[in-house]
Amino acid sequence: MKKIVVFSLVFFLFFLAVSSQKQPNTEFVWNKFKKKFNKVYDPLEESKRFAIFQDNVKYIKKHNNNPSHGFKLGINQFSDLTNEEYQQKYLYKHQNDEKKYLKQEKVYDEKNLKFSPESLDLRDEGMVTPVQDMGQCEGCWSFAIIAAIEGCIAKETDQLIKLSEQELIDCDYDPKNGQKGCDSGSTYKGMDWIIDNNGVTTSKNYPYIGYTNNCGGTDDPISTITGYHQVHPSEMFVKAALFYQGPLLCTVDAHTRKFQQYKSGIYRDKSCSSDSTELNHSMTIVGYGSGTNFSTDNDFDFSSDKYWIVKNSWGTSFGEDGYIYMSRGDNNCGILTEVYYPSGCSLV
């Protein structure tokens, strides 16, 4: 009996030792996370955030251990937030009246569509400015608009000029019309403001501060547009619009935990929605491609996968240096549901 007890104790201690070796040093990773993202908490809050962080790390590891997913998750600035908190702080409620104002346009006739190349990356064409971090401002609508106009101006003038998101956030502030600055806004209403106010200035003249402020009233617009169009929600037409017009505004359903922690690979998520009433985060499509020209640190096989290259506004710690590669061919998360491009772009 004594030998059995001793053996059981030895086995138990061995099990603890092996288990401890298998457990990741989450406290070490937690401290690195806090340092990287300048996170500071009071003692009670830190205990809560650490527990959430541990749960997110566990979720990330479980996802990444399943190669059938085809994309990886990773620790980013949202890893100390529950999914509910992430949605509340970084996503916005879609304005359901969006489609009352625009008709979808098949902008190109069929014969022109065949000239769209097999792959396209407008970053290589000098039409995309560096990724920014909008912080805790839900101003993604303004970042998507500005990125599209910057690309359109570059295509027309060969000049890539950094324009001001902050001017749009401050000066197109009209809560009764749904324009709430850092608390959400509409992409097409933002473009209406730019048209009505004869343009937008540079970020140098009107720098980004990350919260809604009084309109600076700049009298120095540098670029403008005369209109905008909604692209027919078809891969064929969106590819053509990218090739002929430049970067495109899109709005997706980004509410899922997988989107929150996306790191790399071609993102495909059946748990998100493509319905226009469920869209909640605006970004900018800047290209497309297929697995044969996809470069990533993933170990997955992308030889048959197609994707959109999408610029986000959550800094370079999100995704692949600030970009997310979203699957092409299935309107994944509504990426084709509401796509726009500005037209008549020019320098003032």
TrEMBL record:
<keyword id="KW-0732">Signal</keyword>
<dbReference type="Pfam" id="PF08246">
    <property type="entry name" value="Inhibitor_I29"/>
</dbReference>
<feature type="domain" description="Cathepsin propeptide inhibitor">
    <location>
        <begin position="30"/>
        <end position="86"/>
    </location>
</feature>
<keyword id="KW-1015">Disulfide bond</keyword>
<protein>
    <submittedName>
        <fullName>Cysteine protease rdl2-related</fullName>
    </submittedName>
</protein>
<feature type="signal peptide">
    <location>
        <begin position="1"/>
        <end position="20"/>
    </location>
</feature>
<dbReference type="InterPro" id="IPR013128">
    <property type="entry name" value="Peptidase_C1A"/>
</dbReference>
<dbReference type="InterPro" id="IPR038765">
    <property type="entry name" value="Papain-like_cys_pep_sf"/>
</dbReference>
<dbReference type="InterPro" id="IPR039417">
    <property type="entry name" value="Peptidase_C1A_papain-like"/>
</dbReference>
<dbReference type="GO" id="GO:0006508">
    <property type="term" value="P:proteolysis"/>
</dbReference>
<dbReference type="InterPro" id="IPR025660">
    <property type="entry name" value="Pept_his_AS"/>
</dbReference>
<feature type="domain" description="Peptidase C1A papain C-terminal">
    <location>
        <begin position="116"/>
        <end position="343"/>
    </location>
</feature>
<keyword id="KW-0645">Protease</keyword>
<comment type="similarity">
    <text>Belongs to the peptidase C1 family.</text>
</comment>
<keyword id="KW-0378">Hydrolase</keyword>
<dbReference type="Pfam" id="PF00112">
    <property type="entry name" value="Peptidase_C1"/>
</dbReference>
<dbReference type="InterPro" id="IPR013201">
    <property type="entry name" value="Prot_inhib_I29"/>
</dbReference>
<dbReference type="InterPro" id="IPR000668">
    <property type="entry name" value="Peptidase_C1A_C"/>
</dbReference>
<dbReference type="InterPro" id="IPR025661">
    <property type="entry name" value="Pept_asp_AS"/>
</dbReference>
<dbReference type="GO" id="GO:0008233">
    <property type="term" value="F:peptidase activity"/>
</dbReference>
